[in-house]
Amino acid sequence: MRHIEKERDKTARHAKRLDTEIRKIEKERDKTARQAKRLDKESRNIEKERDKTARQAKRLDKESRNIEKERDKTARQAKRLNKETRNIEKERDKTARQAKRLDKESRNIEKEKDKTARQAKRLDKELRNIEKEKDKTARQAKRLDKELRNIEKERDKTARQAKRLNKETRNIEKERDKTARQAKRLNKETRNIEKERDKTARQAKRLDKESRNIEKERDKTARLAKRLDKESRNIEKERDKTARQAKRLNKETRNIEKERDKTARQSKRNDQIFRFSEKEKEKIAKQKERTNIDVMNNERDRDIRRKRKCREDSAFCELERIRKSVKRNNLDYRENEQTREKSAKAQKRKDPHFCRTEKVARKQRKYGSTLTETISVFNKKIEEGPFYVCTCCHQTWFSHSVVDSSFLRKNLPSEDVAKFLTKYISVGGKEWICLTCKKSIQEKKMPKLSLANHAQFPTKPEELELHQLEERLIALRIPFMQIRELPRGRQLSIRGNVVNVPVDIQPTVNSLPRQFNNDITVPVRLKRRLSYKTCDFVENVRPQHVIIALHWLMRHSQMYKDAKIHLDEDWEAR
After folding, report:
1. 3-class DSSP state for residue 318?
2. What's the pLDDT score for residue 194?
3. Beta strands, E only, 383-450
4. Under 8 Å CB-to-CB from 54, ≥6 apart: which residues?
5. Side-chain half-sphere CA neighbours of 37 within 13 A
6. Are 455 and 461 in contact (CB under 8 A)?
7. Residues 337, 366: one domain?
């Protein structure tokens, strides 16, 4: 009966609702009844529960759910045709969302739901592309408004900063950006466009002085941070070195670089503090390099060659000598220099390798490092003979064995100058002193062969001015030796032993003719043995000069006194 009654009521209601006016009256009545009921909170809750239960019961049927969705969709679309309704709905939804989001748990649930929905949609490639296009169009439409663009930038910036507080997120972002850039740069055209864009952006920024300064500081800070890592420093050095080498293959680029560096250095060196710091830096760098013995040897060879080349100019040598002499005028400086050099050499000479190297270097300095240099040094040394006379010992020396004595005159006490230096002028109108005497004087010792030590050569008397064969006639000893030319240089050397043969000169003296004319000469031939046919010496001797020389020797030489030579003084009377 209830079922029949329900059907009847339903049919009656359908019949009534065909009339528009009745439908409106019924709606108004239902609406008023509902509003009256909802004034009571309990009734509202009962109604909500009932509607909820009814909806849940309906939704258990898939077909009912789909019908409901379609109906709701159609209703929403119909409503949204009215702009005002759309705005009201948006405001309502916005308010509802904001109210929900005040609860953290609701926010997380909503995020998860949205995320799941997006992931489900994005499984379909076509939907992904549509979504991308839609988002792109929406963003482009928004960005036409400058204010919105700025708001978006600030929002994105804040979001990125918040994310980057997490180190892991920062690393992931870096890797992602790096991968994306690498993927793009595989295309040459994209690379060129990116370069041009970056170049234009940098040029535009650098027009502003403040931006340039900020960029410089940023780059400087970044470089300093990188350089704290030794490996990064080495990689950077190698990269810069390779780049410089590639550039310097072009001669014009090299010249431009040289001029630029020269101008920059000159400009910087006007600052005294910079000059001092530069010297210190170079000093530390050189000390570090010189720990490598090969570098040290190369540097030494280079300096030696450079100094030798410079010292070919007499003006440079003079300047160098003046500089050193000015420094060494200070006694403390000289003593410190000597002590420092002595300590340094003593420390170095503990190493056998250094001793060998020093010996080789000393030989190379003296004789040259190559055969050509050695020959050149030798030829230069023998250009002039031993014409330089030492003012202290009066011996003759080559040019490389003497120095100008003006230095000693300035630095020695006046009593030492008067004692050792005799003002003897020789080559070039200068007073020279040999290195042997100079060393002894500087060490405050008496030079062994100096005139002050009574080591002067005796003056040769006029009576002994004889020719070579005349000397042999009255010589008590005749030395026999082999003298030959050396294979190089044509100098003479003694070969084998030297034999001094004693000679009895009495028969020779008795054999000299006694003539009254003092200017007479006698031809004499000297043989080694009488049985030989050839003669070693052939010369005209002066008997009178020989007799005078023999008289002088008998009076002044103990050797001749002991020889008991007898001269007949009465031969003129007979």
Report:
1. helix
2. 84
3. 388-389, 396-397, 402-404, 432-434
4. none
5. 12
6. no
7. yes
**344 and 414 inside one domain:** yes
Residue with tokens 């500081």: 217
DSSP H helical ranges for 18-103: 20-38, 41-59, 62-80, 83-101
Q: Which three-class secondary structure state does DSSP give residue 367?
A: helix
Contact 504, 564 (CB under 8 A): no
What residue ranges of the chain have pLDDT lower than 50?
Answer: 572-574
* pLDDT for 497: 92
What string of DSSP letters covers 186-209? Answer: TSHHHHHHHHHHHHHHHHHHHTSH
Single out the residue in 48, 81, 114 at which a domain terminates: 81
pLDDT at 573 (0 to 100): 43
Amino acid at 312: E
Dihedral of CA atoms 334, 335, 338, 343 in degrees, nearest 10, equals: -150
Neighbours of 388 (CB within 10 A): 22
In a domain, 346, yes or no: yes
- Crossing angle of helices 83-101/62-80, nearest 10°? 120
- Cα–Cα dist 447/41, whole Å: 134
Q: Take residue 29 and report the two structure tokens written for it.
A: 């009545």
- The vertex-190 CA angle with 169 and 159, nearest 5°, equals 25
Q: What are phi and psi of 383, to 5 degrees?
A: -60, -40
Instruction: Name which of 479, 468, 474 is nearest 512 in CA terms.
Output: 474
Q: Which residue in 382, 384, 383, 402 sits closest to 392, CA to CA?
A: 402
Same domain for 554 and 519: yes
- Quick: pLDDT tens for 166-176: 888 888 888 88
- φ, ψ (nearest 5 deg) of residue 544: -60, -45
- What distance in Å separates the CA atoms of residue 433 and residue 404, rounded to the nearest whole number? 6
Q: Supply the pLDDT for residue 566.
A: 78
Cβ atoms of 349 and 361 closer than 8 Å: no
Evaluate whether 416 touches 406 at the Cβ level (below 8 Å). Answer: no
> Helix, strand or coil for residue 167?
helix
Of 558, 554, 564, 562, residue with least CA distance to 463:
554
Q: Do 350 and 367 fall into the same domain?
A: yes
- If asked whether residues 401 and 448 sit together in one domain, one would say yes
Cα distances from 322 to residues 339, 407, 425, 469, in angstroms, run: 22, 10, 22, 52
23 falls within a domain: yes
The total domain count for the chain is 4
Cα(239)–Cα(294) distance, integer angstroms = 25
* Residue 356 domain flag: yes
